[in-house]
Design a protein that fits this description.
Subcellular location: Cell membrane
Number of strands: 0
InterPro entries: MFS_dom (IPR020846), MFS_trans_sf (IPR036259), TM_effector (IPR010290)
Protein name: MFS transporter
Main location: membrane
Oligomer: single chain
Membrane topology: Multi-pass membrane protein
Structural class: mainly alpha
C-alpha cells in the first residue's frame, strides 16, 4: 500500500488526551536524558573511572526494581493520574536539590557533589518505580482499542524524538551552560510534564480489579500471567538480554573522551544517534507496521541490533561509530513497536499496571543494570573488548531464542490487532 493511502496513520493524534500524554512523555524523556548525559559526563570528568559510570545505572536500578512491582499493584488499584503527579513532584524536588548542590556545594566538597548525584539518581529510580507503571497502564485508556497499534507507534516515535533531543541538547548545554544551566533546563521541562498531566482526566479503576486481595497475591498474579503468556515473556526477555549485554549507551563518555576524542558535543551526537535511527524507522512503521510475521521480525531486529553494536565496537572513526549507533536504534525501534503491541493486545485491562511493572523490571534490568554491567566490563576488559563481547553474547542468545520459540513464528499478531 502506498505512502499516501494510509489515511489513518495519524488517527491516534486526533485524541486530545493522547496528544497531552505523548507531549508530556516526550518532555519527560528529554528532561531525564539531559540529566543522565550531563551527570554521566560530569562524573567521568571527575573520576575517569568506568565503574563510576556503571554505578549510575545501579543507583537507579536498585530502587526501581525493588518498587516497580508494587507500583504496578498501585496503578491497578489507585488513580493513575494522581500517582504520576505525586511521583513527578518528587523527581522535580530531587532535581532542585541537585541544582543547589551543584552551585553551592561543588567547590566546597567534590566528594559530596558526587554522592549527591548518586543520591538524586536513587530518588529518581524510586519515583519511577511508581510513575512508570502508572503512565504505561494509563496509555491504553486514552484511545479506542482499534487505534492502539497506531497509538503505540506514535508513542514510541515521540519517545524516540525525546531521545534524540535530550542527548543532543545535553552535550551542547553542558559545553556552553555548564551543569547548573543544564539542570535549570531539566526542571523547566519537568514542570511542562506536570502541566501536560493536568490535561488528562482521571480514569476509574477497572471494575474487575479485586481491591480486597492481598498485595502479595496481586503481585504473584501479575508475574504468573507474564510467565504463562509466552509471547509476552519471550518478547520482553529478548529485549532484556540484548540491551543487558549489547548496550553501549552507559560507556559512551569513554568513547567520546578517550577513544574518539570528540568531547561533550561529540558525546551528544553519539548519544542521540540511536534515537535518530529509531525515529526514522518509527515514521516508516506508522505506514508499514511490522506485525505480519511479528516474531520473525523481532528476531531479525534483535540480531541486527547485535551486529550494529559489533561494528560500533570495532570502529575508530567518529562518523562510522555514529552510523553504527544509528542502526542500533533503527533495529531496536522495530522491537519496541512489536513488544508494545503484544503487551497491549495480550494483557487484560485489569492487569495492565502489574504486567507493565513486570515489563518495567525487565526494561530496567536491561537498561540500568545493563549500564552497570557495561561499566564493570569496561573496567575489567577495557571499553572496546567489552562492547565486542557483549555484541557476541547478544547474537548467541538471539539464536538460542529463535531455536527454542518455533511455535511463536506462527502467531498471527496482525490478526489479533484487527479483531
Amino acid at each position: 500500500m502506498g505512502f499516501f493511502q494510509h489515511k489513518d496513520a495519524y488517527k491516534a493524534l486526533q485524541f486530545p488526551e493522547f496528544r497531552a500524554y505523548v507531549t508530556g512523555n516526550t518532555l519527560f524523556t528529554i528532561a531525564l536524558l539531559i540529566q543522565e548525559v550531563v551527570l554521566a559526563y560530569e562524573i567521568y570528568k571527575i573520576t575517569h573511572n568506568p565503574l563510576a559510570l556503571g554505578l549510575i545505572g545501579l543507583a537507579e536500578a536498585v530502587p526501581f526494581i525493588s518498587l516497580v512491582l508494587f507500583g504496578g499493584h498501585f496503578a491497578d488499584n489507585r488513580d493513575k493520574k494522581t500517582i504520576m503527579q505525586v511521583t513527578l513532584s518528587l523527581i522535580i524536588a530531587a532535581s532542585v536539590f541537585l541544582l543547589y548542590s551543584s552551585t553551592q556545594l561543588q567547590s566546597a566538597d567534590q566528594d559530596f557533589h558526587i554522592y549527591s548525584i548518586y543520591a538524586v539518581i536513587f530518588i529518581i529510580g524510586l519515583s519511577k518505580g511508581f510513575f512508570s507503571p502508572a503512565a504505561s497502564s494509563l496509555n491504553p485508556f486514552l484511545v479506542p482499542k482499534e487505534v492502539f497499534a497506531n497509538a503505540a507507534t506514535w508513542n514510541s516515535s515521540f519517545w524516540q524524538l525525546g531521545s534524540i533531543l535530550g542527548p543532543g541538547v545535553a552535550g551542547f548545554l553542558y559545553a556552553y551552560a555548564g551543569l547548573s544551566g543544564s539542570l535549570i533546563t531539566v526542571i523547566a521541562l519537568l514542570l511542562g510534564v506536570m502541566f501536560c498531566i493536568f490535561q488528562i482526566d482521571n480514569r476509574p479503576v477497572p471494575v474487575k480489579t479485586v481491591h480486597h486481595e492481598s498485595i502479595w497475591h496481586s503481585l504473584r498474579e501479575g508475574i504468573a500471567y507474564v510467565f504463562k503468556t509466552k509471547i509476552i515473556l519471550y518478547s520482553i526477555s529478548l529485549d532484556l538480554f540484548s540491551v543487558l549485554f549489547g548496550g553501549v549507551i552507559a560507556i559512551l563518555p569513554i568513547f567520546a573522551e578517550d577513544i574518539l576524542k570528540v568531547g561533550a558535543e561529540g558525546l551528544g551526537i553519539l548519544r542521540a544517534a540511536p534515537s535518530v535511527g529509531a525515529v526514522v524507522t518509527m515514521v516508516t512503521l506508522v505506514y508499514f507496521p511490522p506485525l505480519k510475521h511479528a516474531w520473525r521480525n523481532l528476531i531479525l531486529a534483535i540480531a541486527g541490533f547485535g551486529l550494529a553494536t559489533f561494528v560500533f565496537g570495532l570502529s575508530t572513526n567518529f562518523w562510522l561509530s555514529v552510523t553504527a549507533l544509528f542502526f542500533t536504534g533503527a533495529f531496536d525501534s522495530i522491537s519496541v513497536v512489536i513488544r508494545q503491541t503484544v503487551l497491549r493486545f495480550y494483557t487484560p485491562d485489569e492487569m495492565r499496571g502489574r504486567v507493565s511493572s513486570v515489563n518495567g523490571v525487565f526494561v530496567s534490568t536491561s537498561n540500568e543494570m545493563g549500564a552497570f554491567e557495561s561499566g564493570v566490563a569496561a573496567k575489567v576488559f577495557g571499553a572496546v573488548p567489552s562492547v565486542l563481547i557483549g555484541a557476541g553474547v547478544t547474537m548467541v542468545l538471539v539464536s538460542l531464542v529463535a531455536i527454542t520459540s518455533k511455535e511463536l513464528f506462527d502467531l498471527k499478531v496482525d490478526e489479533k490487532v484487527s479483531e
